[in-house]
User: Fold these one by one.
Assistant:
Number 1:
Amino acid sequence: MIEVVNLCKSFGDNNVLKNISTTIKKGEKVVVIGPSGSGKSTFLRCLNCMEDPTSGSIIFGGVDIADPKVDINIHRQKMGMVFQHFNLFNNKTVIENIMMAPVYVATKKLKKQKRNNTLIALHLKKGTPEKIDTSVQKIKEQAHDKAIELLKRIGLEDKADAYPSSLSGGQKQRVAIIRSLAMDPDVILFDEPTSALDPEMVGEVLDLMKDLANQGMTMVVVTHEMGFAKEVATRVIFMDDGRMIEEGSPEEFFVNPKTERCKDFLSKVLV
Amino acid sequence: MNNFAFNVERFFDILINKGGYKEVLEGLLNTMIIAVGGLLIGIVIGTLIATVRVMPKYKAAIRVMDKICSFYVGFFRGTPMVVQLLVFYFVLLPLLGIKLTSVAVAIVVFGLNSGAYISEIMRGGILSVDPGQMEGGRSVGLSYSTTMLKVVIPQAVKNILPTMGNEFIALVKETSVVSFIGAKDLYLTFQNIGNATYEYMVPYLSMAIIYIVVVCLITVLIKVMERRLRKSDRGR
Ligand SMILES: Nc1ncnc2c1ncn2[C@@H]1O[C@H](COP(=O)(O)OP(=O)(O)OP(=O)(O)O)[C@@H](O)[C@H]1O
Ligand SMILES: [Mg+2]
């Protein structure tokens, strides 16, 4: 699904990621752990080119999306991302947050089809006109129905018309997760999704994530929640100082870490 | 004092019986057209410039545009409005062979000028919006410009509304220099009335009052708008 080849990233002369290669397969739940400043967020943000890799490739859907010539927006639609601070659109209601990208993408496609058909009708272009069986109205209705369905799934349909500022942290994060789900992504990237939450709200977000995991979603999760890693991960990656020091199944990793650094880290976090 | 009463009486005679009020209304209208027109053009130009100036500067084309914008802003902020008006009206237009009314020229020049100031206000506003908003938009596959237009700028506008109100008020007051190119605004109207009677105290006093009333009305209007926009912060 995602193939990372010799990924390097530096900020100025700070080499944050040093030659990382790995492959994330469909259905995998990869949990990335490591000490603060080890480059976990940077790694995750390079996967959807939120940070442009300094060198190396990210092959997603057969395309190297690290190539600046690639239209990254199209690929990001299939790669959800969930942030520590939610990043919901503050000027939009909950349902608008969820509907915005699907509506935008579908209307853009519709406009393009219409333009194409007009050009063909005017004999400015060869080809047969595509049959258009949708309209902006329909697109909006479909996106709305889907958004409501997703909101029902997290039990927040009564908040559809509320603004994010009136939600609790846990609610915001769950809305952020279904916002990325609305695009039917192939994979979702999570960057410490529970770190900014009050302790009593961590559970509801982790539960939703487990739910997604059980339904077969491919996930890459940076987290300090070792319990989640043990329970959900199919593979754990340990990063330190911009390198992947160790990777393996949670059983191997938590029970029998191979490297000293890893043991040292685990002894600190697993008290 | 008797003299003052006489002058007031004569002023109102001119205003009411000799049709002076029509002139005043026309002057007021021109003042407002120039200020509002300038503001609208300024908002468009200012938003465009601000967007260019906050863009990531990876591409050479963007760096060039950024330089052009920064020169533009420097030019319009670095020269007095009167000079810009005079150069535009008496130098640029004749050179290009274009004929425009002085009010039209005033609108354009005020738009270009306030565009420079508004770009700086808008830039501050955009920078005050949490960068996470842009990231949120980009992460679901929206383009930079769509996220900017639909998410970041609306929030920036809300933040800068009070400053924009001040800019508009400044614009209204500054229109009093358009008489330099013969545009008939409030100031020129009252000066004409003064010229006709060789008495300036009452006309100029009345002019000051009209300016104050207009500014107060705008202030109230902005307060109302702010309150409306605040609503989305509180949710339902
Ligand atoms: N935009 C940036 N500009 C410059 N340096 C950056 C930037 N983002 C991250 N860094 C640097 O890269 C290094 C790795 O940061 P990163 O955020 O990836 O670490 P992390 O493993 O996610 O840490 P944490 O657990 O604290 O979130 C740090 O030294 C940080 O200072
Ligand atoms: Mg981080």
Note: The longest helix of chain B spans residues 20-54.
Number 2:
Amino acid sequence: MSGIALLKCRSCGHHWQFRRAACPVCAAIEPEAVAVAGGGTVWSVTTVHRAPLPEWDVPGGYAIALVTLDEGVRVMCRAESGLAIGEPVRVTLRDGLPHAART
Amino acid sequence: MAHITGVAVTAFGKHAGRGPVDLMETAALAAIGDADLPREAVDGLVSGYATTYPHLMMGTVVAERLGLKPKHAHEARCGGATGAMAIVLARHLIAAGACRHVLVVGGENRLTGQSRDDAVKTLAGVGHPEHEVPLGASIPAYYALLAARYLHEAGATERDLAELAVLMRRHAATHSGAQLTKPITVDDVMASKPIAAPLKFLDCCPISDGAAAVIVSADPSPRAAIRLAGWGEAHTHQHISEMPDDLGLGAKVAARQAFETAGRKPSEIRLAGIYDSFTPTLAIFLEALGLAPAGGAGKAARDGRFGRDGALPLNLHGGLLSYGHCGVAGFLAHVVEVVRQMRGEAGDRQVRDPALAYLHADGGVLSSHVGLVLERAA
Ligand SMILES: [Zn+2]
């Protein structure tokens, strides 16, 4: 598995990422934690040349992508460089952070 | 009924040695004077917050500084939408009969009161603490993600976005209070240093010191009846990870409510003040609000639509991109400019007879929206 965990509504099947006690669609409580395969497509992508903390700056910048997972959930990831919107990717955990790379 | 009866804005830029309360005091006293009110007539106060002075009770701090004894005072917080939201709150206080004259004020020494690194770090904190901030995303990175998506969907180019920065700089050059007045070209924007692709340095608003204030009253001012005819809000998400697929959804929802409460149509407006923290923010709003065709905001700017003599004059003081951005007062400066224009007091910047205007602000990452329709009585 990818190491990416989502929450899934036991009532309507909606998936989401952020911590919350009830489904944002149908309000059913006690969602199930599910591990997902990490497949998805790039919704948007940027290269950050100016990090929010100076110690995070790296020469040439680092890429951040928003990936729409196959479960319909958008997640923010570090990304391999040069990704384009619409490109299929797989998200895995790398150094504890979600990372998107070409399949 | 609520009316804008007093406005004031300081110059934006550096106000070294002056704190947020000092700056708010300057703008508030000027706005009370502009409304020609005795100080004790101000019976309500909604202040902004200041990242350089995160007090628990800024509303009370400001009331004390001004020597006010209001029936209501508090501090509103909704990021860039705070000023506009405070005006809506003032309207609600008046409609409820709780107050007659509400002071809305924001001000901050965001430029000189902290290091630039501290400012960037504080602002990045609007991201999700677990799923966004640890990835190294900054405010420009969130808006860069929006910009890339916007360019992809709308078929616009980075040069189109650059047109909006050029336009705001041209407008700022006509206002003595603006922070950035040196003329720039599309090539200058394209050649400015990369911040977060596709955003370059000149696609981003500066960080400023400054303050602005607005008085919202039950009755019109004798010199000009500027009525808050419509208002609308939308809160579609906080974090970009959970934002709707339609980039313009929140703007559309807030604007629809604002125009419905005003009983007016977007095609009737003759002046606009639109939040422009980054060039894509402005493009997304102009297009979502129907003020420019999809993908066409930059081209419309190039063709003169948003200039003083165009069909829809926009941010004639230079907007956040060039007048400057000091937090809550950033958007209040748009309100001040629109009201001065509607009163016919904008001097060299004056547009011809703007009887109906629309103002729009967002906070977060297109997260919270406030739209305002202002109407000048005949
Ligand atoms: Zn559900």
Note: Chain B has a mean pLDDT of 96.
